[in-house]
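Work package 3, deliverable 3.1, input record:
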Amino acid sequence: SQKIEQNSEALNIQEGKTATLTCNYTNYSPAYLQWYRQDPGRGPVFLLLIRENEKEKRKERLKVTFDTTLKQSLFHITASQPADSATYLCALEDGGFKTIFGAGTRLFVKA
Amino acid sequence: KAGVTQTPRYLIKTRGQQVTLSCSPISGHRSVSWYQQTPGQGLQFLFEYFSETQRNKGNFPGRFSGRQFSNSRSEMNVSTLELGDSALYLCASSATRLMSADTQYFGPGTRLTVL
């Protein structure tokens, strides 16, 4: 069955460094992949979408890559700040208006 | 533009009861999706509605049902509540979902606790 895997362990980094989060998927060939941010007790917030024919997408300090051969997406936050501390979720469309989310990776940015 | 609203925000029920949760999408959005989020299972897709029609359903028992009204507002119902139904229930709206990659906008969720 189609599966999405994200690092289950929390990622702890120092302020100013680049955070890199990984999303791997199996048994699927998505047309695009999305990244969301979720803060405790709140709904996810859309950050970026990258399509299968795009290698890289940038938005301010965020960068996403998409390798359909490796079936992997990397999400980078450059010059990280404590305010970037949150859980980051990747998501795929499983056809038919059905979105599948990874379990998320918790990021802690220490000042 | 007002965001997605969900009511109630918190709910406590006992086993065997039923519950109805409500979601009002962003004005003009016609697609509403529902998700269940638990610490163990993460965010799981329940169902999606567009123009009052359910277009897809996740792998949940028949106790979970939903509907969408002509004004795009949606409700989900859980009957015969079980302890394992305790979760954050999230609703997300998007413009149409007719084209792939329509962004989903999530509401704040309803925290359901089953005792």
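The two ends of chain A are 41 Å apart (CA to CA).
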